[in-house]
Specification:
heterodimer; A: mainly beta; seven-stranded mixed β-sheet; 11 strands; B: mainly beta; six-stranded mixed β-sheet; five-stranded antiparallel β-sheet
Chain lengths: 112, 114
């Protein structure tokens, strides 16, 4: 498609539950990036992919976060055993030639 | 000192004014420079993209990059109420550790008053 599509728009989980977020990049874009926006306008890079391969995972918390981009499927970001501090808006971005990045409208994750 | 500094505002201007937004940065490895506009509850929307130094114009928007001063600017001419949003600068390196990750400014909240 012409836009980065993120689902769901809003996800509510109890502390300790699993959360899974999805991102369909713009058609023809090879790179996918995930960012976490915690405080207003504080963006934190998590991970990037080039096609199905991890490109840069230096921002990923090692323990509870994982992500995948598989052929012919939306990319996903999964958080196991969620904590209150995981409450944030998670943005996905895609790009054709690494820059510039085009963003989706995010998934708002609320941990209760 | 944060890698990217941006005055959060808020900035309030009358309709038709020229708006000037800017960011300074400290990482001399930054080569890609972007301006995004973000409306409430929406994702950042790409406005301008510049590689390395120079000026770029697109309609009412002009982006300038001065790498010698580590300073970037976005000018909006003939501002409209629909320009009211938060403007984010973002930049990345193209080599070395963490290349291509975007580092964002904190955003400037702009209101254009009719």
């Amino acid at each position: 498609g012409e836009e980065v599509a993120q689902t769901p728009k809003h996800l509510v989980r109890g502390e300790g539950q699993k959360a899974k977020l999805y991102c369909a990049p713009i058609k023809g874009h090879s790179y996918v990036f995930w960012y976490q926006q915690v405080l207003k306008n504080e963006f934190k890079f998590l991970i990037s992919f080039q096609n199905e391969n991890v490109f840069d995972e230096t921002g990923m918390p090692k323990e509870r976060f994982s992500a995948k981009c598989l052929p012919n499927s939306p990319c996903s970001l999964e958080i196991q055993a969620t904590k209150l501090e995981d409450s944030a808006v998670y943005f996905c971005a895609s790009s054709q030639q690494i820059q510039p990045q085009h963003f989706g409208d995010g998934t708002r994750l609320s941990i209760l | 000192q944060k890698e990217v500094e941006q005055d959060p505002g808020p900035l309030s201007v009358p309709e038709g004014a020229i708006v000037s937004l800017n960011c300074t940065y400290s990482n001399s490895a930054f080569q890609y420079f972007m301006w995004y506009r973000q409306y409430s509850r929406k994702g950042p929307e790409l406005l301008m993209y510049t590689y390395s130094s120079g000026n770029k114009e697109d309609g009412r928007f002009t982006a300038q990059v001065d790498k010698s001063s580590k300073y970037i600017s976005l000018f909006i001419r003939d501002s409209q109420p629909s320009d009211s949003a938060t403007y984010l600068c973002a930049m990345s390196a193209n080599s070395g550790a963490g290349s291509y990750q975007l580092t964002f400014g904190k955003g400037t909240k702009l209101s254009v008053i009719p």
